[in-house]
Design brief:
Chain A is mostly helical. Chain A has a single domain, classed as Ribonucleotide Reductase, subunit A. Chain A has 20 helices and 2 strands. In chain A, strand 1 and strand 2 form a beta hairpin. The chains are: A mainly alpha, B alpha+beta.
């Protein structure tokens, strides 16, 4: 007997639902997980997925993708290709694995929440595919990293990082705990599927795969490309959700997008900005992080806002200023506090790299070069102790990133709130605004400074901090090139 | 006498730091405890300067005033932001 065509049965299958007899709907679908917030049940009948897939098709396609990644992986491992890669690029892969793998695993929980608690049956059906996607992504990252454990113990952090208190990982985890694990279905779809996945990571993975290929890392490139094809599909779950929310509560949609865009951008600056503008070998760079953002992320976000009748966030001019500076701040900060990292950052300020930076960011020398000059002088004078920190940077109570890391030294200001007798600090007016929207949501989140003051870190010094963060000597961050770049400035005044 | 955490930003540097000061410290001493994390690390020395000065909400604090004396006049919470700059 011939099988029916998919379109003959799809609409019935995707809407299969329970008629509840023994429990109230509100008990089966608690509001705190659904997050409809007054949007009537029948409104979700308009929720229409932008892609159609059956389980049979899904398995067939995924199997082919798996076979493709696997073939390349086996060939690259046999060829010991990793050993040929640039040390700066290696830092990018380690940073990616440590900060991404468990986010994929967290996304399994988010998608499984969609498949159980989303307000309509068709969304719940698609959540199941999203869940399978995310299981695959986490497992692919683990398998890739496991292959490379013999090359570098830092790949152990693919699995380990989110079980430590490493400060950067805590910042990433805080955001995704909030918008993936703690958020209801509606907020998670808008903040994570639409803003983070569709707006940032989907495009980021394309760029990173391209950069990895350029750097000769065929294996990493293949992995990223394979994951990206899943992301491109399931990230679209945000659009029908936005459609429904815009009809009933556009103010809420605007707020969720504005909050999540800023928070995702700040992490994106930290993880991708540093990789693109500092870790990628200068001769391999195709565009700067700022150019990439303007060309791909911002145009795309503006188009979504326009298409759905949303406004640009009120903080757009501050965002544009942050785009010029924030990732440079995160870079000099992570390099200076390098013993607290599980990867080896490339300083990226040799003369050739500095020329590139000044070409792409004309105010770079004035904002950042002068600070690097002092570091370079200390390296070349043998005063290495002056190139290390002796305390913690002050941290933001929203992004958990250092105060000052959203802009540059000329724009650094105090953004502080006293809430219930306690001082909270923010890296920007935007993060302060986010806190003040829902202080009860964020007030209990402890950043590393809060934990230090609460006595969780003992002894209260760098050694105690490193131990608390699970940083061990074999993974502790140091300059990727052993400070060889500083030789460019030997025997000359660096500020000249 | 008690340890007291503040946020100290040295003018010109890109990041403020957590600094552990003592309530008996004068603001000249507090300035030193903040500056040590920036000057000579990312900020060059300034031979033309006559030491440092501390500011709270834009007001210069007397160098010989103790933190506890300020706290007796006005509430100062842990993690209060203080600005430190060259005295010129």
């Amino acid at each position: 007997m011939a099988l029916l065509n998919r379109d003959d049965w799809y609409d019935i299958a995707r809407d299969v639902d329970w008629t509840l007899k023994y429990v109230d709907r509100d008990e089966a679908f608690p509001e705190e997980w659904v997050g409809a917030k007054g949007i009537p049940l029948e409104a979700w009948e308009d929720w229409d997925e932008p892609f159609r897939v059956s389980y049979r098709e899904y398995v067939m396609v995924q199997r082919e993708k798996e076979a493709g990644v696997s073939a390349i992986r086996e060939a690259m491992v046999r060829a010991k290709a990793y050993q040929q890669l640039d040390d700066g690029h290696k830092a990018s892969t380690q940073l990616h694995m440590g900060t991404t793998c468990m986010v994929e695993q967290m996304a399994v929980t988010m998608q499984s929440r969609f498949s159980r608690f989303a307000p309509c049956a068709r969304w719940r059906s698609l959540g199941a595919f999203g869940m399978l996607d995310e299981i695959r992504h986490a497992q692919l990252d683990m398998r890739f990293s496991h292959d490379l454990l013999n090359e570098d113990p830092r790949f152990d952090w693919c699995q380990k990082a989110f079980h430590t208190n490493e400060w950067g990982v805590l910042a990433v985890r805080n955001f995704f705990d909030d918008v993936m694990l703690n958020a209801d279905c509606v907020e998670a779809a808008l903040a994570t599927s639409l803003t983070v996945e569709h707006g940032f990571t989907n495009i980021q993975f394309v760029a990173m795969a391209s950069d990895a290929m350029e750097a000769g890392d065929v294996n990493f490139s293949s992995l990223l490309s394979s994951i990206q094809t899943d992301e491109a599909r399931h990230a679209q779950l945000g659009f029908p959700t936005l459609d429904v929310v815009m009809k009933h509560d556009p103010k809420r949609a605007q707020q969720i997008l504005d909050v999540s865009f800023w928070r995702a951008f700040r992490l994106f600056q930290t993880l991708t900005g540093t990789s693109m503008d500092y870790y990628t070998p200068v001769e391999k760079r195709k565009m700067s992080f700022k150019e990439f953002m303007l060309e791909w992320i911002i145009k795309h976000h503006e188009r979504i806002l326009r298409d759905y009748g949303l406004k640009k966030p009120w903080y757009w001019s501050q965002f544009e200023e942050a785009l010029e500076h924030g990732h440079h701040a995160m870079h000099i900060g992570t390099w200076f506090w390098r013993p607290t990292l599980f990867w080896k950052p490339n300083a990226g300020v040799s003369k050739a790299e500095r020329r590139w930076l000044n070409e792409k960011y004309p105010s770079w020398d004035d904002s950042w070069g002068v600070l690097w000059d002092e570091i370079i002088k200390n390296v070349n004078d043998g005063k290495m102790e002056k190139t290390y920190p002796e305390t913690l940077p002050a941290l933001c109570n929203i992004t958990q990133l250092p105060l000052g890391s959203a802009l540059d030294r000329h724009h650094l200001g105090c953004h502080q709130v006293v809430h219930e007798g306690r001082v909270y600090h923010f890296d920007s007016e935007v993060s302060k605004w986010i806190f003040e929207l829902e202080p009860e949501r964020y007030a209990g989140h402890m950043n590393v400074v809060d934990r230090f003051i609460a006595g969780q870190i003992q002894p209260m010094n760098l050694e105690g901090g490193l131990q608390w963060m699970s940083i061990t000597p074999e993974v502790m961050g140091d300059d990727a090139y052993g400070y060889a770049w500083a030789q460019d400035y030997k025997d000359m005044r660096v500020a000249a | 006498m008690a340890l007291f955490p503040i946020i100290g930003r040295f003018a010109g540097d890109f990041v403020p730091h957590l600094a552990a000061v003592d309530t008996e410290d004068t603001f000249d001493q507090i300035a030193e405890k903040v500056a040590v994390h920036s000057v000579g690390r990312r900020m060059p020395e300034n031979p033309a300067a006559d030491g440092y000065e501390v500011l709270l909400n834009g007001d210069i604090l007397p160098g010989d005033q103790r933190l506890e004396e300020l706290m007796a006049e006005t509430p100062v919470l842990p993690l209060q932001w203080f600005e430190v700059r060259w005295k010129e």
